[in-house]
Amino acid sequence: MEPVLLTQYNTQAKGELQKKLILTNVHQVPKLEKIVINCSVGSQPERKQAIEDAAAEVSLITGQKPIITYAKKSVANFKLREGEAVGVKVTLRGKRMYDFIMRLVRTAVPRIRDFRGVAPKAFDGRGNYPLGISDQSIFPEIELDKIKRQLGFDITFVTSATNDDHARELLAMLGMPFRQRSGSQAAATNA
């Protein structure tokens, strides 16, 4: 069964994006290629247990088993040795990707305390959007009683867009709640 968001993209958003971005070919319309979720445990006291906890929670959130990432070089100040496990990573594509983004924008992100929207200018210049989540408890799959340590995530939305404006329009069509500029900010930038 095709995810609701993918159906919505194929039936509505694709045509709207083509008109709005003034693209001549339907293959130029930007699409979401993958979502990469990265969780680094950093300098947790029990790093091995922290890696296992992070892997279990990322697996619950994404529905896919994460891979463990390792340090590429030693850093004495961080008490880090080359080859030591430092985090976990998952790359979502296809149906799981669309299911994840729908759960993220409709249930998880609105649960962030004092949420006013995500930063609309955080794009990398190539149409990719990184989003930092500081607490895993916003995801409904995580049981609050079982949280042993607070973990943050880096979520990167990789698009086929050639520039940031096209990627911003794509993510907005998919439901990403971008922060609206207030009247005073808009007036200051126009002056």
Classify the beta-strand content into a percent band. Answer: 15-25%
- Average pLDDT across residues? 84
Distance between the termini: 50 Å
Radius of gyration: 19 Å
Order of helices and strands: HEHEEHEEHH
What fraction, in percent, of the residue positions are helical? 25-40%
How many beta strands in the DSSP annotation? 5
Enumerate how many helices there are, as a single number: 5
Low-confidence stretches: 187-191
Shape: globular
Largest sheet: 5 strands, antiparallel
Which structural class do the helices and strands define? alpha+beta
Strand order of the largest sheet: 2-3-1-5-4
Compact summary:
This protein has 191 residues and is α+β, with helices and mostly antiparallel strands. The chain has helices at residues 4-20, 47-62, 94-108, 164-173, 183-190, and strands at residues 32-40, 67-70, 85-92, 129-133, 153-159.
Give a verbal description of the structure.
The chain is an alpha+beta fold and 191 residues long. Helix content is 35%, strand content 17%. It has five helices and five strands; from the N terminus they run αβαββαββαα. Strands 2-3-1-5-4 form a five-stranded antiparallel β-sheet.
Features:
globular, 191 residues, disordered C terminus, alpha+beta, single chain
How is the secondary structure organized here?
Layout: H1 4-20, E1 32-40, H2 47-62, E2 67-70, E3 85-92, H3 94-108, E4 129-133, E5 153-159, H4 164-173, H5 183-190
Antiparallel strand pairs: 1-3, 1-5, 2-3, 4-5
